[in-house]
What does this fold into?
Amino acid sequence: MKKRLALLLAVVMAIFSLGMVSFAKGNSVTEMSWSDGEQAVKESGIKGSFVTLDEIDIKFWVPNDYKPVKITAEEKEEGYIAYYENSKTKGVVSVMYVDLNGMSLEEYKKELKGMSDVTEVEDCIINDIKCVGYRMPEQDSLCLFYTTQKGYGLEFTFAPVTDDDDDSIQIPAYIMSSIMEAE
It folds into this structure.
């Protein structure tokens, strides 16, 4: 069990340079799949279920101790479509639409690299879907960004994720590995 969890965490840490590896030196694409995450979740004993975002035909796994938070009309206007929070750990997962003004994923990635509060911008493929992963260290968060068929971006944000606490990546890693197209 610990070996499998360690492997999964090593992959995710490599994505975002939370440990030993930084892909900033090369053109690597990091790949993850639910088959890896599912096995680690089973071995860890964490219970959860999949939620589907019907508006965008995406589903992802959420631990049972992460509860949905009601989104206000103002937050919906800002683009939020889902928000989950663990009241004990203060862990959050938010999902929101971002208007790309017609930009491609590659163009958005270039824009991210120019932002002073964004680091470690990397190409990823999760469950055969291309996305961009990046960190926002000042906000103790990491994000995955997908483009949609309707010309918007879909951003998953996980917090807190810090360099000071390697355990802070465990639940986000499980959730990230589960993001996939709804059936």
